[in-house]
Amino acid sequence: MKISVLTLFPKVCKEYINESIIKNAIKTKKVDIEIINFRDYSKQKNKQVDDYQYGGGPGMVLMLQPIVDCLKAIRTKDSHVILLSPQGNIWNQQAAKKMLKYKHIILIAGHYEGFDERIEHYVDEIISIGDYVLTGGEIPALIILDSITRLIDDVINNKSLDSETFTKGLLDYPIYTKPKNFEGHVVPDVLLSGNHKKINEYRKNQQIKKTKLKRQDLYKIYLKGVKNGKNK
């Protein structure tokens, strides 16, 4: 898979992808990530990418020309273009999994007051990472990039993916490490029993319990799955 990020602040993105799991995924060629400064595509003498909005109003608006020309230069028949905006569909784990079907994903990170509305004619999807506003789209782009990359085959141990939060609609089970007793907080005995059947039963029950306690929305979806025979 290839992921392209269109941004005015490439250093922010490059710093992140050159660390840890994503760095290893790039090194082992599980994913190809390119960071593009769309200012380079501006036709203005001063490389301007923003301007005042028609009708008046606060803040500067990103111009169409630099972004559209950048898209035309890198887009192929296999590309899926995503605009990052608070007006888009909320990103979640299921959305991340769906992205694995694409060979090339292009993420457009905005800035300033936002995009010229006509940008929507040049994208395939609009995505938001939540109901709040940030100063730029770099962090949302990295969140989406990260959540997709870690799902690519062999980037992370498949067993880890099977048991983590949101898999099968549940939160992850509680995990512990040494020491067994820390200031009176003790690791459950079942995890020290060596009985893997009981450990697995305990963990599944804890997943259900935690989800019911902390995320009623997910718990209701899980119950529907149980009723329909999808979740066991």
Average pLDDT value?
93
Approximate strand percentage: 15-25%
> Cα distance, first to last residue?
33 Å
Question: Which strand order spans the largest sheet, edge to edge or round the barrel?
Answer: 2-1-6-5-7
Estimated helix fraction: 25-40%
User: How would you characterize the largest beta sheet?
Assistant: 5 strands, parallel
Order of helices and strands: EHHEEEHEHEEHHEEHH
Count of DSSP-assigned helices = 8
What's the number of extended β-strand segments?
9
Summing up helix and strand content along with how strands pair, one would put the structural category as alpha/beta
Q: Radius of gyration in whole Å, from Cα?
A: 22 Å
- In the predicted model, the low-confidence regions spanning at least 5 consecutive residues are none
Shape: elongated
Write the layout of secondary structure elements.
Blueprint: E1 2-7, H1 10-17, H2 20-27, E2 32-37, E3 50-51, E4 61-62, H3 64-74, E5 79-90, H4 93-98, E6 104-108, E7 125-128, H5 138-149, H6 158-163, E8 181-182, E9 185-186, H7 196-214, H8 216-227
Parallel strand pairs: 1-2, 1-6, 5-6, 5-7
Antiparallel strand pairs: 3-4, 8-9
Helix pairs in contact: 7-8
Description:
The chain is α/β, with parallel strands linked by helices and 232 residues long. The protein is built from eight helices and nine strands. It has a five-stranded parallel beta sheet with strand order 2-1-6-5-7, sandwiched between helices. Helix 7 crosses helix 8. The protein is elongated and about 70 Å long. 22% of the residues are buried. The mean pLDDT is 93.
